[in-house]
Amino acid sequence: MSKIPVIRHLGRTEFEPTWRAMQNFTTNRTSETPDEIWLTEHSPVYTLGLNRKDVRMPSRDDIHVVNTDRGGKITYHGPGQSIIYVLIDLKRKGINVRQLVSAMENSVVALLQEANIDAASKTDAPGVYVQEKKIASLGLRLKKECCYHGLSLNVDMDLSPFNAIDPCGYQGLEVTQLKSLGVDLTQTETATKLLKYLTKELGYSISI
Domain of 73? Predict the structure, then answer.
């Protein structure tokens, strides 16, 4: 099992300062810096990844758009969505980005399986889907073999802002959330369960 990561429960945060903090952490970390996992939820924001070709910008102007440095296209973050950021030295851990993506997707699938809900990932469209509706999104940035950003899972939120975009660049893609699937978990309960599955997938020796 790998060295225990530092777990940070940030509560509700604004996206941009949290993103800048991840950048700073990654820039300043050394070969001895412990990995960190940050749990948060954001105030309403659209984030636009580096793949900006043919992206349809939001059809509403009351939610700020932030151009960020993760992979992928456009998505929405807001209250009622659990976010886990993974700040990991992939080289030291001995895994690649594909393995990390699979670990994140598998943790969401396991959480849903616990509630007897069938979910799956897609090789051509990272994330987790329930009956073709997206419930979790992924995005990462790699710098000197260390990563940041992570995953978001829709728990109990206002989904209408997704209607103003093509989620992750896919026209007509519908989204869903735990609440709509009859899973009655609080934000804290969801984050705790997801963290348990994710740390297990990543082989961290940690007790949740």
Answer: 6-201
Rounded Cα distance, 50 and 70, in Å: 6
Q: Is residue 207 part of a domain?
A: no
pTM: 0.94
For position 2, what pLDDT does the model report? 55
Residue 147 falls in the annotated catalytic set: no
* Residue 52 counted as domain residue: yes
Do the beta carbons of residue 42 and residue 75 sit within 8 Å? Answer: no
Residue 208 counted as domain residue: no
Q: Tens of pLDDT along 49-74? A: 998 888 889 999 999 999 999 998 99
158-163: Cβ within 8 A, 24+ apart? 158/78, 158/79, 158/80, 161/44, 161/46, 161/58, 161/60, 161/63, 161/76, 161/78, 162/76
**For the domain that residue 89 is a member of, what is the CATH number?**
3.30.930.10
In DSSP notation, 38-70 reads EEEEESSEEEE-S--TTPPPPS-SSS-EEE-SS
Tokens of 63: 């939610």
Which tokens go with 104?
Answer: 């994140």
Q: Is residue 156 part of a domain?
A: yes
How many domains are there within the chain?
Answer: 1
Average pLDDT, the chain: 93
Mind listing the pLDDT tens digit for each residue in 106-141?
Answer: 999 999 999 999 999 988 788 999 999 999 999 999
List the catalytic residue out of 37, 168, 178, 185.
168
